[in-house]
Amino acid sequence: MTQKTKKLINAPENIIPEFIDGFVSAHADILAVEGPTGRAVVARHGPRDGKVGIVVGGGSGHEPAFAGYVGRGLADAAAVGNVFASPSPQHILDAGRAADGGAGVLFLYGNYTGDVLNFTMAAEELQAEGTPVKQFAVSDDIASAPFERRTERRGVAGDFFVFKCAGAAADRGENLDSVHAAAMFANDRCRSMGVALGACSLPQTGTFNFEIGPEDMEIGMGIHGEPGMRREKLAPADTVTDVLMEPILKELALESGDRVAVLVNGLGATTQLELFLIYRRVRQILDALGIGIHANWVGEYATSLEMAGASVTLLKLDDQLTRLLDHPCRTPALTVGEAGKAAPVTQRSERKVRAIKRDVAIDRAALLTSGSVTSSIFVQMMMAIADTIRTEKDHLSQLDGVLGDGDHGVTMDIGWTAVRNELENGTDNGVIVEVCERMAHVFLTAVGASSGPLYASGFRGAGKAVADRLNLDGAATAAWIKGMSDGILSRGGASPGDKTMVDAWFPAAEAAVKAAQSGADELAVLIAARDGAKAGAEHTATIESRRGRSAKLGARSVGHIDPGALSAYMILRAMTESLQNASA
């Protein structure tokens, strides 16, 4: 029997807006919410004319990160995503526009696929509006990739130091290139290692997102439950600390006379009593090596809901980083120095957004009309997908708990619920290309994560592939499916065999095109695509993951179907069944 967890929440779907409301009202002298999405937490005394804007962000569930680092002298705004899911480009754009003081904006976030995709899309949009943008993904987690592939590493508690140094550089009036360089330099001299003792649970599922034995610990586990370097028996605090410190000391090449800043971070369910035992051992190790501790923080700074465990982060200091670390700031989670010594508040002009025209009038009379899939039937097919994903969301999340962070079903349900609401509210949903564009917009805004940009790109690619169609015939149905596959491939960069959703969409597209070339009608094309997707999804159980969070599992990923590939099959299955019903 699956163990259910207990949380003090109201409706799970309202947890993020309610959290933001509570958090901002508790710090009303420091924070405000700006922008139409309600997901941009902005410093009341941060953004100002002539200063580089600092925007941080990521998924919720890591509190006090990320909104807790918004305030004078640190971040100007944070984009707040769903639990364990990147904020969407619209969330990030709200934060970026609020932080823009005319000197450019720097986006800072952890090195995760969803964050990279969403922040990159937002950066492209903000740049198109006329704002200079740079971005940087923090990658301090030693356990997540070897040194020679360190650019692939995850960002964990090192966010704390990178955000602090970049925020200080911006507050001191440095230009965008210099602030960006400060972030990169801090990241290069920052290393983290963590240990997990117990799992966490998503509010929407109420079940643990991974399993760990009562006497076990996982060295190097990530802050979403990603696999670490190894699992072994629980050891005393000093022994565990020694294990965490060894690779940090080696990679930073610390020597006698060096100075560091230390962060001992609790993951959510680890007591202060335990954290200070870890710090005690860290200090003993550094003292024995003749390494000075310039500053230290012990507590919860980058958590993982109620996960039991802790991490150790060291920042190797020089004069520049010391100045940036000591620069005053005042945020809900971190105050350094006297707040009154932070840069004085100056004028903040209203942000002028330059509109980008995208809508193009469609001449319906010029569209091709052959085929039985009308816009109305197409919308019914999309509704059927939403119903299927809602039914299967727990199963998809359970699969994702084995390979990832356990939220795929929840994330897909959020996105398809947004699609359902959008299409239900439309009296005239337009032609199919217009429906696809609306789906892309609402899915991306609602979801973020990695699925948001990937499916938004897929919907747009599919819509463009049938932009000359009023209805879909067999060939156009195949073109739509291939457009989905191509759009996902172009945005995400995964290839067949990487154990992702591509392993279902790519063979589905190949099968659809082949069927259409042989003269198959719309339903036969969908059946071929569905069967191709099913075979592709089942094949993922036989291969190792090479992309995303599950790539760290290696051989442990074999034997498990990729949840993204399975949900792709479910989408095509639902479309097929809906068209069969419509044709009956």
Largest sheet data: 6 strands, mixed
Regions with little confidence, pLDDT below 50 for 5+ residues: none
Radius of gyration, rounded?
Answer: 25 Å
Average pLDDT level = 92
Report on the structure:
Helix content is 44%, strand content 14%. By secondary structure, it is an alpha/beta fold. Strands 1-2-4-3-5-6 form a six-stranded mixed β-sheet, with helices on both faces. Helix 15 runs antiparallel to helix 16 (563-583). The longest helix is centred in the middle third of the chain and has 29 residues, at 375-403. The protein is globular.
Quick overview of this protein structure:
With 584 residues, the chain is α/β, with parallel strands linked by helices.
What is the secondary structure topology, with strand pairs?
Blueprint: H1 15-26, E1 31-34, E2 40-43, E3 53-60, E4 77-83, H2 89-99, E5 105-110, H3 113-128, E6 133-138, H4 159-171, H5 176-188, E7 190-198, E8 216-219, E9 230-233, H6 237-252, E10 259-266, H7 272-289, E11 292-299, E12 308-316, H8 319-326, E13 329-330, E14 335-336, H9 375-403, H10 408-424, H11 432-447, H12 451-465, H13 474-492, H14 502-517, H15 522-539, H16 563-583
Parallel strand pairs: 3-4, 3-5, 5-6, 10-11
Antiparallel strand pairs: 1-2, 2-4, 7-8, 7-12, 8-9, 10-12, 13-14
Helix pairs in contact: 2-3, 3-12, 4-5, 6-7, 9-10, 9-16, 10-11, 11-12, 12-13, 13-14, 13-15, 14-15, 14-16, 15-16
